[in-house]
Write a structure and sequence with these properties.
7 strands, 7-stranded parallel beta sheet, 23% strand, 151 residues, alpha/beta, 5 helices
Length: 151
């Protein structure tokens, strides 16, 4: 079975964060893993574009309909759950890479940790390690290290 790596982050991002997301997606695509995202813009868009450029497969779990998917999503799953779909992104992922992000990303991080999953942070939220009772939260500073740990 193929490894599913979730990439979570804001639906809008700076140029630097877009480049990081693209590189993470590219490395995931090269690894023969499935890239799982929320299927929209920003970090999700650029990670999916990177994965597609590397010949990878992308899965977008959307808050509403398929028409909202970015053009680099191969498999679009419409949920009509709004932000509650964040939990589905976590559930579909074996491990997650958080890139930058806002409170929606923080909710996904929280869901993942509560389920005992590993979240690799690439310039995302800083958490108090003493308060994490399940899962692992690992902070890194490069796309290469993030994907290496996710694999």
């Amino acid at each position: 079975m193929m490894r599913c790596i979730g990439v979570i982050g804001g639906s809008s991002c700076t140029e630097d964060i877009c480049e990081l997301a693209y590189k993470v997606g590219y490395l995931i695509g090269k690894s023969n893993s499935v890239l799982v995202t929320g299927g929209l813009g920003g970090v999700m868009h650029h990670a999916c574009r990177g994965a597609k450029d590397a010949g990878g497969i992308t899965l977008g779990i959307l808050p509403y309909g398929k028409e909202d998917a970015n053009p680099y999503v191969d498999i679009a799953i419409p949920t009509y759950y709004g932000l509650a779909r964040n939990h589905l992104v976590v559930r579909a992922s074996d491990v997650l890479i958080a890139i930058d992000g806002y409170v929606g990303t923080l909710s996904e991080i929280s869901f993942a940790l509560n389920e005992g999953k590993t979240v690799i942070s690439l310039f995302s939220w800083e958490l108090n390690e003493k308060r994490i009772t399940k899962g692992k939260y690992i902070q890194v500073d490069s796309p290469e290290k993030a994907v290496e740990l996710a694999l």
